[in-house]
Each structure stands twice: as C-alpha cells, then as structure tokens.
Write a structure and sequence with these properties.
The protein is an all-alpha fold. The protein has helices at 2-32, 34-51, 62-75, 82-87, 89-110, 118-129, 136-142, 147-172, 175-180, 183-208, 212-221, 225-240, 248-275, 280-291, 295-303, 311-337. The chain folds into two domains: 1-32; 35-337, Up-down Bundle (Na+/H+ antiporter like fold). Belongs to the arsenical resistance-3 (ACR3) (TC 2.A.59) family.
Length: 342
C-alpha cells in the first residue's frame, strides 16, 4: 500500500502539469487569434441580424453577456498587485499622466469637431476617456512592451477611470449631453455590471491564493476573457445592427474622429514616457495604454442612459472596430518608434 501511494503522487503531479500546459496553450492560442475571433464574432452577428432582422430577444442578453465579460476581464486584473505597481513610480506616473491628463486634454481639444447630437458626444467621450484594462496587455506584449508592468497597473487604471470619468464628462459635455448622463441609471449600471463583477473576481482571486481548488478554478477561468469578449461583441452587434439604419449617420460622423485619435494617442503615450525617462519596453506599454480604450467596459454605463439605443452602442462599437484594426498597425510601428537603447 505504501508503494502504491508513492507511485500515485508523481502521476497526480504529472496530470496537474499536463492540465496546466493544456490551459496555457489554449490561452496562448486564443490570444494569438483574438483579433480574428473578435472580427469573426462581429461578422457572424451582423449576418445573423441581416438574416433575421426581427430578432430582438438578444437585447435581453446584453447585460448578462457584458457582466460575464467584465467578470472574466477583472479576474485577470491582479488586484493584490496594486501596491507593487506603485513601486515602479516613474512608469506609473507616465501611465497616469498620459491617460488622465494628456488624453483628456486631447479629447477636449477635439470635441468641438464632434456633431452637437448629445448621444454622439456622450458616446465618443465615454469611450475615449477610459483606458483599456484587458486586451491592451496582450497587444503590448505583441508590440514588445512591458506587459507585466502594464498588467500590474491595471487596477489603478480601472479605479482612476471610475473615479474621474464623471468629472471629465461634466467638464467636456455640453448641458444637453450632460443631462443625458443621469446619475441614477449610471450608478445602477456601475453597481451591477462593474462593481459586482469586480467584487466577484476579487473573491475568486482571494480563494485562488488560499485553496488548491481555487487555484485550479482560476486557471480554468483564465481562458474565458477572449471567448467572453467575443460573446459580448456578438450579442451587442446582433442586438444593435437591426436598428443601425437610425445610427449610420452617427457612426459615419465619429469614424474620422476615432481615426485621428488612433494616430495621435500612441504619440501622446510615447511623449509622456519620454518625459519621465522610461526605457523602451515601458515606453511602448504607455503608448499602447494611451491608444487603447475601455469600450466594452463603459458600454453598460452608456446603455444606462435614457434613449441610448441605437446611437450610443453603435458609436462605442464603432470605436472598438477602429481600434482593433489600429492595434495591427501598433504592434509593428510602436516598437520602431520606441527602439531599445542598444
């Protein structure tokens, strides 16, 4: 019996190692193919909406899909690493300066170019003022940035944008657009679609650090962010597309605005990195963060505005599509703009 127990241990350890490798390989495969997966989800949703234009049942699935995506996103945010992130104070200072000083100033300078429609102004402001906390880490890694430093900083980015977003909206929006962003629906959306998934993700992380079962569950859930994001994109596009006939003008109006942002924002990030004397890898991460926005995370806040559909979700999803195409350029161009000292 003693020999049998000794023999079983290596087998169990080997099985766990194989499981970890399989999960890691699945996650890496999803990360390599994530742009194709996202565009595939959008194309499939658009096709479904075209074939079945009367299909409205997916609208009821929007909030659950977003809640699942946000839980999966927050689960990858190392909440316990928040204190360690501030230990790299120059990187954190450059990241916060780029995202919460320079980028809002840039958006404020461009906002007079937006149409006066309050829904368009609210949607564009919401999406461009909030830095990404999820797939930006993957793209920074592909663009030879310091992905670990950016990942450790994501809790600070998330907390800062939630605290500052109401202030920026009040400063940047005209009275009509500000009136659309009512506090009550925004607070309800924040509580149930952001705060609750964040608290649940924090609980799972706590469980993971104190239990082998929790650690295993967390490893399994680590493959969820990209499929969950693709599902959210699918549901949102399928629900919004039948009403796009009323939002095409709005989308066409904001596309040039988003393209201009996509060109200038990474340069703003590189400028902030240079100001704080960051090395090339950290500078690339700041550039990716400045250029990549939190579109799907702020979407629940947008949908909480009265009369949001179809203009607000269409305006926000349009930025996502422009951004995904831009990321393919960034991973090649940003490493050349911020070259290694050697």
């Amino acid at each position: 019996m003693g020999q049998m127990r000794v023999a079983r241990r290596p087998i169990g350890a080997t099985q766990r190692r194989v499981e970890r490798l399989a999960i890691d390989e699945a996650r890496e495969l999803l990360e390599r193919r994530q742009v194709a997966i996202y565009f595939g989800a959008v194309a499939a949703a658009a096709a479904l909406a075209f074939l079945f234009p009367g299909l409205t049942a997916l609208e009821a699935a929007t909030n659950p899909a977003l809640a699942l995506m946000l839980f999966a996103t927050f689960l990858q945010v190392p909440l316990a690493a928040l204190g360690r992130a501030f230990a790299r104070w120059r990187f954190m200072a450059a990241l916060l300066a780029a995202n919460f000083l320079a980028i809002p100033a840039f958006v404020a300078a461009l906002s007079p170019l937006l149409p006066p429609d309050p829904m368009i102004r609210l949607g564009a402001s919401l999406v461009l003022l909030a830095p990404c906390v999820d797939y930006v880490v993957t793209f920074a890694h592909l663009g030879r940035g310091d992905a670990r430093a950016l990942l450790a900083a994501t809790p600070a980015l998330l907390l800062a944008q939630m605290a500052l977003l109401p202030l920026y909206l009040k400063l940047l929006l005209n009275d009509e657009a500000a009136a659309v962003a009512q506090a009550g629906p925004f607070l309800h959306a924040f509580l149930w679609l952001i705060a609750m998934p964040l608290a649940l993700a924090g609980g799972v992380q706590f469980w993971s650090g104190r239990s082998a079962r929790g650690a295993k569950a967390t490893r399994l859930l680590s493959v969820l962010p990209i499929p969950a994001t693709a599902l959210a994109l699918f549901v949102i596009v399928a629900a919004v597309t039948p009403r796009l006939g009323h939002a095409l003008d709005a989308v066409q109006a904001v596309i040039p605005f988003y393209v201009g942002f996509a060109v200038v924002a990474p340069l703003i990030g590189l400028g902030a990195a240079k100001l704080f004397g960051l090395p090339a890898r950290e500078a690339r991460s700041v550039a990716f963060s400045a250029a990549t926005r939190n579109s799907l995370v702020v979407l629940p806040l947008a949908l909480a505005a009265p009369g949001a559909v179809p203009v607000l979700p269409a305006v926000i999803v349009a930025q996502t599509l422009v951004e995904l195409l831009s990321e393919l350029v960034y991973v090649r161009v940003i490493p050349r703009l911020a070259q290694d000292d050697a």
